[in-house]
Amino acid sequence: MKQPSVSLTDVSTYLPGEPIGADYYARFAGSDDLAANLMFRAPKFRHHVGPDETATDMIERAAQGLIERHGQDVIANVDVLITHAQMPDMPFYGGGGGIAHRLGMRPNWVLDLHNGGCAAFVLGLKVARQLLASGQGSTALIAIAQNAAGQVFDQPGVRRKAQASVPGDGAAVGLVTLSDRSPILDIECRTYGEYAGDMTLAIDPPRKWWQPGPGEASIGFTETKITKVLARGNRQVPEVALAVCDRINLDSKDIDLLVTNQPNRVFLRNWREALDVPCARHRDTFDECGNLFGAGIPINLDHAISDGQVTAGDVVMMAAFAHAGDFAGAAAIRWGGRS
């Protein structure tokens, strides 16, 4: 029996506040041994979540475009809600319940996906596709909030570090439906559990993240760790994208639009070169938004759609890796246009 087609029907996004220029971090920069590392070349701008803005607030604002284009009922009748927040509003539970309530929906499934990291949108597509195709509903919403830039990386001590100038905040939602409008052609997700402990928090003096005490938490980068992450990311993203290309009989150079996460300019260049995709067909917003973590793929796709960079019939390849390389995923769709 042929499985029904599942489509990524639309995406809608939100960027908080006014753009913050690179000079904001330049004036705070302290002595950092990693300041010259290619991983931390600052974007021209990025956005920061507001002081009292929650991840749920961001998702609600991101969903407004879908509501305007498809109506409130489409959101209210969502069967599957899949969420990912870089910084959950509460550490003991995910934001799915609060997001469902805020958007006026009562879904049969509410799933919070934390392990997807920067590839969370691809993982969300895989879960949504499987659930809808197996008869668990007709509509899914994937909701991603990246809110670490204005919270973790803007702490007075952390913003002196080179790593602080790269992240930006933003949110996105993707509408997935049982239809053949913009069919998901194939998805590849891979877990590399051996790397799961390689992303660590650095706090001076050392303590567990939940313990009270002096010192602010930042990502525990070292030159050795960066070298390993660069090697893994350079390898994993092309590998998962090529696996999808192989199954849908598409040469990577014929990808109409490549959309990836955007940790830095080095990865962006290396990925398109590895896949033989020209710069004009690899969408990024790095200099406008910085590293958007899990929100990067849907925000870049939304910009490409709105700008007319991707048109009906185009094959869009989405690919990303997460954390220090413990997860990677790629998904291809044939875009059918906005209704």
TrEMBL record:
A molecular function GO annotation: 3-oxoacyl-[acyl-carrier-protein] synthase activity
Transport listed as a keyword: no
Taxonomic superkingdom: Bacteria
Pfam families: ACP_syn_III, ACP_syn_III_C
Beta-ketoacyl-[acyl-carrier-protein] synthase III N-terminal domain mapped to chain residues: 115-193
One GO term (biological process): fatty acid biosynthetic process
UniProt entry keywords in alphabetical sequence: Acyltransferase, Transferase
Stretches assigned to the Beta-ketoacyl-[acyl-carrier-protein] synthase III C-terminal domain: 245-335
PANTHER family registered for this protein in UniProt: 3-OXOACYL-[ACYL-CARRIER-PROTEIN] SYNTHASE 3, BETA-KETOACYL-[ACYL-CARRIER-PROTEIN] SYNTHASE III
Name of the featured protein: 3-oxoacyl-ACP synthase
